[in-house]
């Protein structure tokens, strides 16, 4: 245990020193580093695949299911995606140093806000080794240092990617310790990282609910997180039928195992008979199991009666809960009570209701006549994202470059003194 403490303290000290340099790095240096890392990943693709094969073999021996193995795999397309993602980050505007809201005060001074890096960011994630490159790239471009702790199932893959990152940093002249990937699989390392207030400014967990709950409950370092993606689509009585069916179908079936997939469909009972049977047929054709309230079961053959737990479940699977509601306000009440404050949608042509829905639904993304699947950093024009935050402080929604920075007040004077 003492060895882990010593090791993690060393990482923290090195990250803090690197963060001081990164906070002053110009955009050219950061972009050179990102492009050099991308080139190193391309050049090291065969080695990365070989190390990834070790993780896949170990995963099969441990009995990891097909979905986990799929998330773990790094093939040619995914490796190319990592390097391309870094190049895209290099093309994004640098938020650091941006000054906004400059205004003169009666005294003659100017007050404004300057965007600055957070400092040292600890990121804890599972399974997907491509996160190593994504997270490193976003932290570098936003002027931060980072300590990355991937899952033990991806240890060889993560270290192979880490070697490429270090190579790119050295080539660019930026501190090699600006990105450090934890080399131990000991779970105690996570406990040390989330308690390292003197070295780490914020923790971002990416993974399953159990991991995120543990980090949130045990961390003394501030956490940017979301626990669940219990997303809703509400089909209003003023909805266009074609839009409603298309949006609900895409929200549920575009991808199942993602946090912005619809898990509960709410339908105004005055239009349910007109929309639900057709929508249910299309959902069943895609293999989706339907669980519904009593009224829903009366409209849809073979619909499984929903339990109370279904309204609070993130399935991440081809399962959908359906509930009929009397009006929009009942839908909003259900969403705010059972949702996870992630992404919720209204389908309607009544823009008075749109304004009410946008104000009343307490979620990080609230949408009108669009699929929940658009809740994504790239789709929002933010570039890559480190995750989606359902917290209300600092960052909310997709967390891109700007979400990895903070603001400080600046005051510009010309000799003014306070009377």
> Mind describing the biggest β-sheet?
7 strands, parallel
Low-confidence stretches: none
Give the overall pLDDT as a whole number. Answer: 94
How many helices?
14
Distance separating the two termini: 58 Å
Radius of gyration: 24 Å
Strand content: 15-25%
Strand order of the largest sheet: 10-9-11-8-7-12-13
Shape: globular
Supply the helix-strand structural class: alpha/beta
Q: What level of helicity do the residues show? A: 40-55%
The number of E-state strands comes to 16
Sequence of secondary-structure elements: HHHHHEEEHEHEHEHEHEHEHEEHEHEEEE
Write up what this structure looks like.
The protein has 419 residues and is an alpha/beta fold. The chain is 43% helix and 19% strand. The chain has 14 helices and 16 strands. The protein has helices at residues 2-22, 27-43, 45-62, 66-72, 76-91, 130-141, 155-172, 188-194, 209-218, 241-253, 272-285, 294-299, 328-338, 351-360; strands spanning 99-104, 110-117, 120-125, 145-149, 179-181, 202-206, 231-235, 262-268, 289-292, 304-305, 319-325, 343-347, 365-368, 387-389, 397-399, 405-412. Strands 10-9-11-8-7-12-13 form a 7-stranded parallel beta sheet, with helices on both faces. The chain has a 4-stranded parallel beta sheet with strand order 5-4-3-6, sandwiched between helices. A hairpin with a 5-residue loop joins strand 1 (99-104) and strand 2 (110-117). Helix 1 (2-22) packs across helix 8 (188-194). It is globular. The mean pLDDT is 94.
């Amino acid at each position: 245990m003492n060895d882990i403490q010593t090791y993690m303290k060393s990482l923290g000290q090195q990250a803090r020193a690197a963060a001081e340099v990164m906070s002053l790095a110009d955009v050219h240096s950061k972009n050179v580093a990102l492009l050099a890392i991308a080139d190193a990943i391309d050049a090291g693709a065969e080695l990365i695949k070989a190390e990834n094969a070790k993780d896949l073999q170990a995963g099969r021996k441990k009995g990891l299911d097909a979905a986990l193995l799929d998330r773990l795999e790094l093939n040619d397309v995914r490796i190319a995606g990592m390097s391309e993602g870094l190049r895209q980050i290099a093309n994004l505007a640098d938020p650091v140093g941006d000054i906004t809201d400059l205004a003169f005060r009666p005294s003659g001074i100017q007050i404004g806000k300057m965007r600055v890096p957070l400092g040292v960011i600890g990121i804890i994630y599972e399974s997907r080794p491509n996160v190593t490159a994504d997270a490193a790239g976003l932290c570098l471009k936003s002027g931060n240092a980072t300590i990355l702790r991937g899952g033990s199932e991806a240890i060889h893959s993560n270290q192979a990617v880490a070697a490429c990152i270090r190579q790119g940093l050295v080539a660019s002249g930026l501190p090699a310790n600006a990105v450090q990937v934890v080399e131990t699989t000991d779970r105690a390392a996570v406990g040390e990282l989330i308690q390292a207030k003197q070295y780490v400014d914020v923790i971002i967990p990416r993974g399953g609910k159990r991991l995120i709950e543990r980090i949130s409950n045990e961390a003394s370092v501030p956490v940017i997180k979301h626990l669940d993606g219990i997303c809703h689509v509400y089909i209003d009585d003023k909805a266009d039928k074609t839009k409603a069916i298309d949006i609900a179908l895409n929200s549920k079936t575009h991808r199942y195992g993602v946090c912005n997939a619809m898990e509960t469909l709410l339908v105004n009972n005055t239009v349910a008979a007109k929309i639900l049977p057709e929508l249910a047929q299309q959902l069943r054709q895609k293999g989706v199991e339907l669980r519904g309230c009593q009224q829903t079961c009366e409209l849809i053959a073979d619909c499984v009666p929903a339990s109370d737990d279904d309204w609070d479940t993130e399935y991440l699977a081809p399962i959908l809960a359906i509930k009929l509601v009397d009006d929009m306000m009942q839908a909003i009440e259900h969403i705010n009570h059972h949702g996870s404050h992630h992404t919720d949608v209204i389908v309607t042509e009544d823009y008075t209701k749109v304004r009410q829905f946008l104000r009343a639904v307490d979620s990080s993304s609230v949408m009108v006549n669009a699929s929940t699947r658009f809740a994504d950093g790239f789709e929002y024009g933010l570039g890559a994202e480190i995750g989606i935050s359902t917290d209300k402080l600092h960052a909310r929604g997709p967390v891109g470059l700007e979400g990895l920075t903070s603001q400080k007040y600046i005051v510009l004077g010309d000799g003014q003194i306070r009377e």
